[in-house]
Amino acid sequence: MLFMEIPTYRRLNIQEEYGMSRTYKLTMNKVEQFKWNLMEQERSEATIEKYIRDINAFFEWLPEGKRVDKPVTIAYKQSLLERGYASSSINSMVAALNSFFSYSEWGDCRIRPLRIQAQTMVSEERKLTKEEYKRLLHAAKEKNERLYLVMQSICSVGLRVSELKFLTVEAVHRGRTVVNNKGKMRTVVLPPKLCLILKKYCRRQRVTGGSIFVSRTGRPLDRSNIWSAMKELAKAAGVAADKVFPHNLRHLFASVYYERFQDIVKLADILGHSNVNTTRIYTTATAAQYQAQIAVLGLLNP
């Protein structure tokens, strides 16, 4: 893709504002060193993969031989806007670049993320309802018992897919499991009914220890295994495919819990969020739900 040249007057303003005098050469070797640094920090595989993918996208956008400086990185952010990327996606890519710049000691290349107003509504086309979840379970029960139980295990306690490996035979017998995610430890209490169902499953499958849900090679199921299996259920359950993905089960748990108890602080603890603002994303309502809430205020006189 062609490099988007910044108008001369704007380029001069940027240079004057930030006092730019240095440029840097981006190389694949530098990116590889950054990857090893992320691994040493014990960042998750998904985070490392995304950061490297975002940096490679920036690398491919740069013209051959073009060096990196503040105007270049600002131009890249602008090009993402012009190509129609969502604001949240742009900020995610900016975060990856800024992390790389900090590691490389290119601090003067760091750029600000876009300012986004807090989202108050979620698209109805993406929000999985409790009724749709039950239809998915019904379809899974007939086609894939393991998936049937995986979905309930994630949705009944709000697990991340990457945390499913901590659901072990030993944890089921204790009634709780300790989850280690991104260096943060939390205890997840397992409902007695879920423990009973999983104990029966383990006896039938002769699973005597370790992770309950594993692949044929004995490795814990990952996101791709579960995602593809769930997509196959969508049509049979009569649920839009865009709504059917593992993380939406965690969203459903959060929205149902919040609707019932209205305690966002406790919900943040259960989900393992360090910041309540992250939890707010999980509790946003649809436009139809907001309309229903506003209607009961009684502020209109027919």
Describe, in plain words, how this protein is organized in 3D.
- This protein is mainly α.
- It is built from 14 helices and 2 strands.
- A two-stranded antiparallel sheet has the order 1-2.
- α12 crosses α13.
Task: Note the topology.
Blueprint: H1 8-18, H2 28-40, H3 45-61, H4 70-82, H5 87-103, H6 130-143, H7 145-157, H8 169-174, E1 176-181, E2 184-189, H9 192-205, H10 223-237, H11 246-261, H12 264-271, H13 276-282, H14 287-295
Mean pLDDT, to the nearest integer, reads 86
Sheet with the most strands: spatial strand order: 1-2
In whole angstroms, the N-to-C terminal distance is: 57 Å
> Count the helices. How many?
14
Could you give the order of the helices and strands? HHHHHHHHEEHHHHHH
The gyration radius over C-alpha positions equals: 23 Å
Low-confidence blocks of residues: 1-20
Global shape:
globular
- Main β-sheet, in a few words? 2 strands, antiparallel
Estimate what percentage of residues fall within beta strands: under 5%
Q: Based on DSSP secondary structure assignment, what is the total number of beta strands?
A: 2
Report the helical percentage.
55-70%
Helix/sheet category: mainly alpha
